[in-house]
Amino acid sequence: MLAITRPMSDRFVDALAHAPPAVAIDPALARRQHAAYRAALAALGARVVVLPPDDAHPDACFVEDTAVVIDDLALMTRPGAPSRRGEGAAVATALAPLVGLATMDAPATLDGGDCLRLGRTLYVGRSARTNPAGIARAAEVFAPRGVRVVAVDLAPDVLHLKCVCASLGDDRVLVADGALDPAVFASAAVVRVPADEAYAANAVAIGGGVICADGFPATRAALTRAGFVVHAVPTSEVRKADGSLTCLSILVPTAA
Prior knowledge:
Shape: globular
Low-confidence stretches: none
Structural class: alpha/beta
Strand content: 25-35%
Number of domains: 1
Order of helices and strands: EHEEEHEEEHEEEEEEHEHE
Mean pLDDT: 97
Oligomer: single chain
CATH superfamily: L-arginine/glycine Amidinotransferase, Chain A
CATH class: Alpha Beta
CATH topology: L-arginine/glycine Amidinotransferase, Chain A
């Protein structure tokens, strides 16, 4: 597994957020936390690629939103926030030697944070950042490869689908209580996160390990009971920018 990442620039203080944080983002602390995240990815066996920080785009550390990778094909997205639409060029350059690239044009918008894959099904949140045309483009690209695309309606206060859930492999999913009807995920086994720890429902699973946000003991216990080796990492600074753990990497299957 290869993980594409990008540390924060000093302009991370200007990242998008639904509300100004009570304590301003600390870019230096954010970079230290990002380094801990990369170390956790490496501990789970991923080969970590680190792109240079992007001073022109404050949100560029959230690489997940720029591409959706399934097997040997990446769909380069058109993010829903206009200020983010220049972030994908460097990501496409990194992906090009590894996978084929498909593109997305206006009026379609799609953020990778709205895309959750379980086996041969890709669930896509219909959100303020991802519109029906973006979902249709995902189906156009991936359905011919045997991937079923299922749209999921989200509550207005949910930024991305994976704010409230995360894949734990092909047949298990982590879901925050009350955020979604678990039946959405058909026959997948659900590992539940208490509603008061909903932020921790976003986690990165690779093999038998999972990276989760530090400071959420019930979620960590649930993941441990589910058989995972848990790596908890600090997330205070990305959370101030409405970010979480899956946002910070694009996982690419590799032979090596």
